[in-house]
Automatic annotation (TrEMBL):
Family: Belongs to the UPF0057 (PMP3) family.
Keywords: Membrane, Transmembrane, Transmembrane helix
TM region(s), chain numbering: 29-50
Assigned GO CC terms: membrane
Protein name as catalogued: Stress induced hydrophobic peptide
Major subcellular site: membrane
PROSITE patterns: UPF0057
Subcellular location, record wording: Membrane
Organism expressing this protein natively: Trichormus variabilis (strain ATCC 29413 / PCC 7937) (Anabaena variabilis)
Amino acid sequence: MDLIRLLCAIFFPPLGVFLQVGIGKDFWINILLTLFGYIPGIVHAVWVIAKK
């Protein structure tokens, strides 16, 4: 399942975070980071997935 989350995090970072933690503060932070830049969104998503 982590592989699927990581692939989602690379192609659409908010989806990877959503699959890991649901709708919460990490999800909204990732939405903002993805809007500001695609790479920060990916980095945050991978970090959230690896942290749990």
